[in-house]
Design brief:
With about 100 residues, the chain is of the alpha+beta class. It contains 2 helices and 5 strands; from the N terminus they run E-H-E-E-H-E-E. A hairpin with a 5-residue loop joins strand 2 and strand 3 (about 40-50). The two termini are about 20 Å apart.
């Protein structure tokens, strides 16, 4: 299983990006989390098969209908990834 870190920029807060991202990741069978950052970006960590991670990154580039994504930065993630359902979490709160 591979894990990746995503930073999404643009108009991505207040447009249901987190909830929509979590739904998409769940459909793809991924584990991880997504949250808003204080600087206006959205941050996510996802783990799963490479093909599903790439599908999530493609979805992130468009996002939900009200979003306007300007960039998606993707990098490998070496930290832990919580097992279980992919979650949209409260700002700055990370699952244990």
């Amino acid at each position: 299983m591979e894990a990746r870190h995503y930073l999404i920029s643009g108009r991505v807060q207040g447009v249901w990006y987190r909830a929509s991202c979590a739904e998409q990741a769940q459909r793809l069978g991924l584990q991880g989390w997504v949250r808003n950052l204080a600087d206006g970006r959205v941050e996510a960590v996802a783990a799963g098969p490479s093909e599903q991670l790439e599908a999530l990154a493609r979805w992130m580039a468009d996002g939900p209908p009200l979003a306007s994504v300007s960039a998606v930065a993707v990098s490998p993630w070496t930290g832990s990834v919580p097992s279980g359902r992919f979650a949209a979490i409260a700002d700055a709160a990370l699952p244990e």
